[in-house]
Specification:
heterodimer, A: 89 residues, mainly alpha, B: 274 residues, 10 helices, 71% helix, transmembrane helix (chain B), membrane (chain B), transmembrane (chain B)
């Protein structure tokens, strides 16, 4: 396996376990701690695919696959614009 | 619906959806609407389930080289843009229109789920385990079909495929179902990518689509954190169970049963909202 992809798989594994723990906190812990845990779970679920695209974009740029690094950059741009449009509207 | 019922529904739909390769939200969202939740409230919970399912599958799919990331990223540009438009528009569309649309979506999903084909690309004996993975600079690659069988593939008819991705993104943003029931058949039947790679690539891209739509839903104040956490936890467990059960139960038979359930859900939703 490509070393970078192994690291990405490990990162996603960590995100998966963390999301599960945070989800349990959000669902079963009462009060502010539970709420913060739930919000963190949602933030993690939203940010995990964005981090994955960012990682791939950097990996492709590093290995000279410029065409797809540019595609990754455009997709990240769409994601940033989506976030800005959603919260500034 | 009480929290126990919600968690149970999210777990079962995520497991069955992962098992059939359609994703859990296509069952969860119509089920929640039929249980009394409004389509506007059900959509964010559906996308939480999608995002959780995508994350649950990621480590295994990355290690198995099943995802063609270059294809996913290229097609997701238009998919995410369409999801953004759909999510923004969903805030101004009426409840019964959304529920009706959901009914039609369930019937379309039933049709695509029922007719999906098996293996299209045949193994190439000249390939070895060292060849598996996607190819740099192109939308092609090799995947492992069996222990000693490897298949070469190349994505074709990308512009037509992009139309399918845009449609899937729009539906995801509007209704909260993943759009995977359109993406996987489009990637497989239109672009001629093997079903296994198409399904894995779709699982990757629906995570991105759901992230875009969830941002909009969050800005609209439509995410109830405690319910979202409950659905996320249950979907993470259900998705993992479903993916493991794929090895035991034949996916085509499961998809057939799922299609029958979706037809019933679709007809009920349309009949109640006409």
């Amino acid at each position: 396996m490509i070393p970078g992809m192994e690291r990405l798989a490990g990162l996603m594994q960590l995100a998966l376990i963390t999301a599960f723990v945070l989800a349990l906190g959000g669902a079963f812990v009462p009060g502010t701690i539970g709420h913060v845990s739930g919000v963190a779970c949602v933030v993690l679920l939203i940010s995990a695919p964005v981090v994955r695209v960012g990682w791939l974009t950097v990996e492709w740029a590093r290995t000279g696959d410029r065409r797809f690094a540019a595609m990754g950059g455009v997709l990240l741009g769409v994601l940033v614009v989506s976030g800005l449009l959603a919260f500034l509207r | 619906m009480n929290p126990v019922e919600l968690a149970f529904a999210a777990l079962i739909t995520a497991a069955v959806g992962a098992l059939g390769g359609l994703g859990g939200a296509i069952l969860l969202v119509p089920f929640l609407v039929l249980s009394g939740l409004s389509a506007r409230e059900a959509a964010p919970l559906g996308l939480i389930s999608v995002a959780a399912g995508s994350l649950a599958a990621a480590p295994h799919q990355l290690r198995a080289h099943l995802v063609n990331h270059r294809l996913g990223v290229s097609t997701e540009i238009i998919g995410s843009a369409a999801a953004l438009i759909g999510a923004l528009a969903s805030g101004i569309i009426g409840q019964s229109t959304l529920a009706l649309m959901l009914g039609v979506v369930a019937l379309v999903a039933a049709y695509f789920g029922g007719r999906r084909k098996g293996i299209r690309n045949l193994p190439d004996p000249s390939l070895t385990i060292d060849d598996i993975g996607e190819h740099a600079g192109s939308l092609s690659g090799v995947y492992q079909l069996d222990e000693d069988e490897f298949v070469r593939y190349q994505a074709n008819r990308v512009p037509v495929g992009l139309v399918g991705m845009a449609t899937a993104g729009l539906i995801a943003g509007l209704s909260g179902v993943s759009g995977g029931f359109i993406k996987t058949p489009t990637t497989s039947e239109v672009m001629h990518v093997p079903v296994k790679v198409a399904a894995a690539t779709t699982t990757f891209t629906v995570g991105i689509t759901s992230a875009v739509a969830l941002l909009v839903y969050e800005a609209q104040g439509r995410i109830v954190v405690s319910d979202a956490a409950l659905v996320a936890g249950a979907a993470l467990i259900g998705g993992t169970i479903g993916a493991r059960m794929q090895a035991v139960l034949p996916p085509p038979k499961v998809r057939g049963a799922l299609s029958a359930v979706l037809v019933i859900i679709g007809v009920l939703l349309i009949a109640r909202n006409l």
